[in-house]
Amino acid sequence: GALLLGGGIAAGLRFASGRERGHRAEVFIGKAPNYQADLSRVVQDGFSTLGIGQSDVRGKRILLKPNLVETAPGQTHINTNPAVILAVAETLRRLDAREVIVAEGQGHRRDSWLVLDESGMGAALEQADLTFVDLNHDESVAVPNAGEWTDLGPLYLPKTLLSVDWVISVPKMKTHHWAGVTCSMKNLFGVMPGVVYGWPKNVLHYAGIPESILDINATVKPSLAIVDAVVGMEGDGPIMGTPKDVGCIVMGRNLPAVDATCTRIMDLNPYGVPYLAQASGRLGPIHESNIVQRGEPISALRTRFEILDVPHLKSVTAG
Question: Whose CA is closest to 279, among 227, 231, 218?
């Protein structure tokens, strides 16, 4: 096991693979050296390796949730790259998905359409005939909180989110100045409507960022994560950091396992990320012995991500 050194829930507890008894997951890592590479082939290889085929996808309505956080023309390290979203959508269409939509309720800028336009995502979606839904202003429905790590009570989720068969988190691999690491689980903050939870989702921040991440994931139950780690972000993420070339896409059905793998690729400690440590054995596995790595090995792509030198993030860099 490893020691969670603080900064959140259950400080000082030891977590070991035994806690995860019965939890196993596969995670695929595919090389993608740049955004001009054949990303559709990488995604298709991931689906095939993970055993996701036409019979799983045919007839389903699927929502892709990118990470669109800030207007930054030409900056490839802040938002999920449009090329990754298009590759995922193309793969799903080839497998006969009934409908693929892209949806986001970003927490930083209030103008979703400005972010869509200046990130380059808007033009890409239009070219691919993909519909975009602004989840910040979608009609919301109260649903029971399946996690109850927070005192939020029922969660108000967008009607669009509740109407689809699959939710796929398609985030960017980044450091985060509060959470330590943001990948597929933290990305789901963006499904929570701003008209209910504020900007930048202040209600969730007050309730506790790690606890809110866990509640949202337990309630939404996303089907898949596909992480854009072609170019990530290190330093003062999720907005003010600097680009970090990694050169891969990380995929899996279990989000804690995917994010633990991403954290190891970043050469950081998943047990030092409070929401991952708390997800262990509850929402999935994060221990290496319980994650079956497919595709490329972590060692082939591991590259140290710099992280802010602040007390609450010390555990993230601990070995």
Answer: 218
* pLDDT tens digit sequence for 109-155: 778 888 888 889 999 999 999 999 999 999 999 999 999 999 999 99
Q: Using alpha carbons, select from 311, 306, 256 the residue that is nearest to residue 282.
A: 256
Which tens digits make up the pLDDT trace of 227-259?
Answer: 999 999 999 999 999 999 999 999 999 999 999
What burial class does residue 91 get, using C-beta atoms within 10 Å of its C-beta: 0-12 exposed, 13-18 middle, 19+ buried? Answer: buried
Residue among 316, 306, 304, 309 at smallest CA distance from 266: 304
Residues facing 233 on adjacent strands: 174, 243
Residue with tokens 């989720």: 157
Contact 237/177 with Cβ under 8 angstroms? yes
Q: Across-strand partners of 64?
A: 102, 168
**Cα distance between residue 257 and residue 274, in whole Å:** 14
Determine the residue type at 300. A
